[in-house]
Design brief:
Layout: H1 4-19, H2 23-43, H3 48-65, H4 70-87, H5 92-114, H6 117-141, H7 147-170
Helix pairs in contact: 1-7, 2-3, 2-4, 2-5, 2-6, 2-7, 3-4, 4-5, 5-6, 6-7
Length: 172
């Protein structure tokens, strides 16, 4: 039971890999993950990061139903989270760090879906694998998000990100 977050993350990565590794799926994964960290910082409540997995997924789904690119929906969601954080007077350094992380990881992920499939998959994979470093930092510091979420993300980001990188490098 102690390792349930890692088991959950690994199960999610396995599911993603088995059902197909593509730039969109990898990019959505990293962008939703970054939005979860931003949501926890904006509300000042670590547990919100877990809830944001569902919220971020819903934003992606609703965006696609409305024929809006998923990244426009998630970008708007992130902007709302920043406004919430500012209105709530969330600690500036924490909100800024998570906002910049969202911009950086999300930006690379979006670039990944706007370029060629091979380069896009590589970019999205690098962004996701790179997000694992962010997960580890948050896990070690035990701040912003629950350690369980950071652990789950680590177990998802590394295998899924590496699978995307390997696939991109071996595509013909």
């Amino acid at each position: 039971m102690r390792y349930w977050p890692a088991a959950l993350g690994l199960a999610a990565a396995t599911f993603q890999i088995v059902t197909g590794v593509n730039a969109d799926a990898v990019a959505i994964t990293v962008a939703v993950a970054a939005s979860c960290y931003l949501a926890a910082a904006a509300f000042g409540l670590p547990w919100v990061a877990w809830a944001c997995i569902l919220a971020g997924s819903a934003v992606v789904t609703l965006s696609e139903i409305a024929s809006i690119p998923w990244w426009v929906g998630l970008g708007s969601f992130a902007a709302v989270l920043v406004v919430v954080g500012l209105v709530r007077r969330s600690p500036g350094p924490v909100l800024t760090a998570q906002g910049l992380a969202m911009l950086g990881f999300g930006g690379v992920a979006v670039a990944g879906v706007l370029v060629s499939p091979r380069l896009g998959l590589l970019l999205a994979g690098v962004a996701l694998a790179g997000h694992a470093v962010w997960d580890y930092r948050q896990w070690r510091a035990d701040e912003v998000v629950p350690r369980s979420l950071a652990e789950c993300c680590l177990a998802l980001d590394i295998p899924f990100g590496v699978a995307a990188i390997v696939l991109a490098l071996t595509m013909q």
